[in-house]
Each structure stands twice: as C-alpha cells, then as structure tokens.
Amino acid sequence: MNVCSFTGYKVYPSRGRTFIRGDGKTFHFLDSKTESLFHQNKNPRKLAWTPIFRKIHRKGISEEVAKKRTRRNVKYSRAIVGLSLDAINARRNEKPEVRSAARAEAVAKLKAARKEEAAKKKAARAAAAPQGASQRVSKQQARGAPTKVKATTR
C-alpha cells in the first residue's frame, strides 16, 4: 500500500497512478485529479480539501483537548534596597493630598537651592573680573590680529 504524494491519503493496491520523474523519483497519486494538480505545481497546503490544509487550519478536531490553563502571576511585595517593606506600604497608602504637598515642598527646596547657587556663581564671576577689563576680545584679537582702525574720513 502506497501513500499519495500530493494528498497523503492511502492508495490501495490496483488503484491510483504512478509517475516516475526524469531523475528516477517515484510519485504515487490517488487519482488523475491529484496527479493533474501536482503537475500544475499546486500547493496542497492551499487546497481546502486536502488533509494537510485541514491539519494546518485545525479543521475537524472533534475531541478538543482541555483548554490550557493560563498561569496567573502572583503579585507579592518585596523590600527594595534602601526602603523597607513597611516604608513602601506606608507610601502607597498615603493620601494624594499629603503626597502632593510633600512634592510641592521638595520642589520649593530645589528651586531655592538653585537660586542660591546661581547667586553664588554671579558673585564669583563679578569678583573674578576686574573693573577695567569689561570689554570683550574677539577670537582674532586673542590670536594677535591687528585691531581695526575706525575710518574717520568719509
């Protein structure tokens, strides 16, 4: 008993057709229909009546296997480095008003610190630059280029 090279059905003795290709490979077909489709280079996976198509597209599976149970992720809390579990829970259970007030206070502190730092920088800059050296020097002048003479006659 052979198996059809196109469909995969059983080909019983004295039934079907046999095709021997030029390289000597033998193909057994159930009938002339499958042989014709094979010679037209049709793909059995795309023909709805073939067992291969039905297997790929999960057709006719009568006894369905019990559905796979999806595993539920169990959530649990762990302490993070630098924070204990109690501190995390306390922060989580805080009221939104308290949290926003704390945030506003932290922002105000940051702004004050930045302002203070900017004032320090300004004072340092003013102290570093002497009074007479307030005029700017271009790149060319710094490299030693002669200064431009202003035209007095025109």
Quick recap:
With 154 residues, the protein is mainly α. It is built from five helices and four strands; from the N terminus they run E-E-E-E-H-H-H-H-H. Strand 1 (2-3) and strand 2 (10-11) form a beta hairpin.
Question: What features would you describe in this structure?
Answer:
The chain has helices at 32-39, 51-56, 85-92, 96-128, 139-142, and strands spanning 2-3, 10-11, 17-20, 26-29. The chain has 154 residues and is mostly helical. A two-stranded antiparallel ribbon has the order 1-2. A two-stranded antiparallel sheet has the order 3-4. A hairpin with a 5-residue loop joins strand 3 (17-20) and strand 4 (26-29).
Walk me through the topology:
Blueprint: E1 2-3, E2 10-11, E3 17-20, E4 26-29, H1 32-39, H2 51-56, H3 85-92, H4 96-128, H5 139-142
Antiparallel strand pairs: 1-2, 3-4
List the main descriptive attributes of the protein structure presented here.
mainly alpha; two-stranded antiparallel ribbon; two-stranded antiparallel sheet; 5 helices; 154 residues
Which range does the strand content fall in?
5-15%
**Rg, alpha carbons:** 44 Å
User: What is the terminal separation in angstroms?
Assistant: 115 Å
Number of helices: 5
Shape call: elongated
What string gives the helices and strands in order? Answer: EEEEHHHHH
Structural class: mainly alpha
| Low-confidence region ranges | none
Largest sheet: 2 strands, antiparallel
What do the pLDDT scores average to? 87
Give the total of beta strands. Answer: 4
